[in-house]
């Protein structure tokens, strides 16, 4: 069965786009360097960026100081690059055939601080393509850094002097060590001789302003080619969606932001750094480590600076609730926090509610939340709720959801049959969103399909990935040639009352026996089952004896007693069965940090699946449904004849019956003399959980699904064994 609901209507669903009046809003600048130059001219003495890190000094840059540092660095970059740079005629010749392909790339390697943004803007002034990547930690392998360097072949490496001094050539590839290295903070003394106007004259909106490497949650990282026009369009989209305004005078500087997000991530760079500069505001930066080690520092900084804008992925809000007491929360003043954007992973309604309740005493208002949806391939923001409005949430029927439909239900609907989804709001500015079926036709409102995008924020494709660019960035609506090309996001969602709801990713979807199960739902169930004993969880589909089955990995606290682990697994299974009517084939309890995650904290389900299937997850305790386990010993399921026909049907019936009787004795704890082949399963004490277990194990062994109707029709081991053997005869090729 397809993971999408098929389009069956004869009329075309309405497209989802902002009103035409909003779509006509365009940025006032040709590029980010044009923007920074004007900011430095309009309000040179206004603080632009401040970095705080513990009790140390708090370096800061005004707009004029930032501009001067950038221009000084461009002079040194031009001097280092010299003859390595193509001539203007060479650039034009290549650009006629390939978008901005003539531009060299510069790898940015910076610890948290202010030097990153100096290097970032200097690259753009020089028409180098900045490639933000993670900070190379001494003595540690850096696969993200190595992957980006090998893919983009940088012509220059920018870092601060301390980072460059700490690079170990023995631990880094030739792609990282071979280009010229330049320290941004090795400032040359003397007056700045660079001509900003001459530099700006060379920059076009179509130039690549950024090569943003994806987080790789479902595949290897790829470099997204983001132009200046893409960046400015998206920054204006954020401004419009969040209800913000751009500073247009020296006295207008009400925007204040706080960010701990890493600048090599799209949310950290664009939402955390560039948006405040676009607005002419001030950003206080923190290191990710500072936040993760003590989440209260983030909220304390928002309170002390009077910040109006700050945001993060869902997990950050959850961490603040878990790590801060009610008394600590009440000591803060979060009343000036007007825009608390939340995105970068499926947004948990429970998290938003817990955070709002926990920090209400601090003056936090729930209508400050702005749930968002975005991705690097669309620069950043795609859709968001409106500022100063409580974000809608939708309760839908869980069974309908598994069939690819979003059917709203009321508060009286049984809780275990309901899923509540956070609204991600309306499309931004000129962005068009379509929910599309596998055959390329649009879905109706309420039908779940893949999210396709079109608009000025959509990037130019992946760097040197022509093989997949046509498929991902050149998708077309079936029977609608005039609609143009779309970006296929790989995300699943639906529209309801004009608002977008995101349900998960196509590649993460777990399809069992024709039903769709979203891993986030199962992971939320496990979280509720384990509570504070769990740090992270992932649910994936793994290869089973027949088709695929559910596997769950949960990180449990190091303080959890070993003797309690089997009971935790039993509790997880009961909760998952009760809420989702499926039983996991495999549950692994592991130590904190064992589940692979991206730089933004999203679990890498594809990587986790590979680790599971190669038996590389370091398990503290592992349970598998496909064996009969008893105090550490196990017996594999007995083999059946390879080909079951009428002549071997009796033998197969006996084997299935013998196995079921052994299974009942094992599961019920009954004496063997009390277990009879002609006694109904219910009289053997088979509860709902055990019934699902039996169905799953028979499915694994025989490949025959035991539905409730089948179980009711063949209610004893003898009758069910005869039926199953008959099914095997029917399915055996003759």
Question: How would you sum up this structure, described in words?
Answer:
The chain is α/β, with parallel strands linked by helices and 734 residues long. Helix content is 35%, strand content 21%. It is built from 25 helices and 31 strands. Strands 1, 19, 20, 21, 22 and 23 form a six-stranded antiparallel β-sheet that branches. It has a five-stranded mixed β-sheet with strand order 12-13-14-15-18. Strand 26 and strand 27 (548-556) form a beta hairpin. The longest helix is centred in the last third of the chain and has 20 residues, at 649-668. The chain is elongated. The two termini are 26 Å apart. 46% of the residues are buried.
- Report the radius of gyration as a whole number of Å: 29 Å
How does the major sheet shape up?
6 strands, antiparallel
The coarse silhouette is: elongated
Q: From the structure provided, what is the oligomeric state, counting identical versus distinct chains?
A: single chain
Q: Average the pLDDT over all residues and give the rounded result.
A: 83
Number of H/I helices: 25
The N- and C-terminal alpha carbons lie at a distance of 26 Å
The percent range for helix content is 25-40%
Question: Which spans have pLDDT < 50 for at least 5 consecutive residues?
Answer: 1-13, 19-24, 92-101, 627-635
List how many beta strands DSSP finds: 31
Hey, roughly how much beta strand do the residues contain? 15-25%
Structural class: alpha/beta
